[in-house]
């Protein structure tokens, strides 16, 4: 099996298919099991591809958006996406690059999470008959009997090889236990690929770089069955500072508005570092590369216009055009410092006022800073006011005593950036 990495692609390989050329040019490719053969397959005609997501929460997050966007581009170019939801594999949990086991979920929680994930993917894809589909791997995994599964598939996997995958070695190197249940996860993911190939003629799997070992297993299992399958992994997404993309002081950046408001989602993208804007425009928006090249030439304060476009474009894709427009208008009010009825109001739980809400964390949550260290510099630079009073204590914890009679709190950074926080 031929393995190509990104460096080989950019220097020596010139794709003939429009789909592969676009994915490479926009920065989606990290590794591919056989780049030239996949390119030829894409030239031949319509290819069915899948990306899988376990139902560990009732929403996907920004970390999942990269494979979703790659699949979205494939559909735009007349290829067929399958969004595989792991109703079966969620019961085990993928051990890849984790130091401990995932918590077990009952069937009711998994079903609730499946509904939440469907809400997200239905906004991003055309799932009408013949165009795309969402599939639950419990449809076939629930039907397997243990001894039959071992007999049919167990002989195709060796412990020796599975021990060489980084996803397994990282757990063992950390001297953390790896259960037999988790060890079998990569077998199940390989079976998923073969089953999708048998049912829907699916020949391409797209996943994060941490899924490389699991994907290779599926490609190899398909080859043993006489079918040529392909694996395509995406780069590990980090910001220019080296931090993992999609994490904030408050945790994951969720895609469902029930988990994270459209405005807060917009704000996350609006606060993108200057050095990341162009790369994120290529990966997370539908803008043509010619327009992105124009935005890449902006300098100084003009870069903020590119950030607004990035935030509005991504929010429109994930939450819809109306939600994106409203978030943009609210964001404009925030950054322009308007103090009329359009001043942004954030609603937070009153429980946070029981000593667990730090000023630095609040500044990050409101979008005034991209990190606690940046928020600390704002406080130490005498730029932050709480209820109109200058605040110089970067360890300040906010309590109920800081709120007004209407249970609100005003925060200002400089003269123009202001927000009202309502505790309910």
TrEMBL record:
GO biological processes: tyrosyl-tRNA aminoacylation
Intervals of motif 'KMSKS' region: 244-248
UniProt source species: Pseudovibrio exalbescens
Name of the coding gene: tyrS
Localization, UniProt: Cytoplasm
EC assignment: 6.1.1.1
Function: Catalyzes the attachment of tyrosine to tRNA(Tyr) in a two-step reaction: tyrosine is first activated by ATP to form Tyr-AMP and then transferred to the acceptor end of tRNA(Tyr).
Protein name, per record: Tyrosine--tRNA ligase
Intervals of motif 'HIGH' region: 55-64
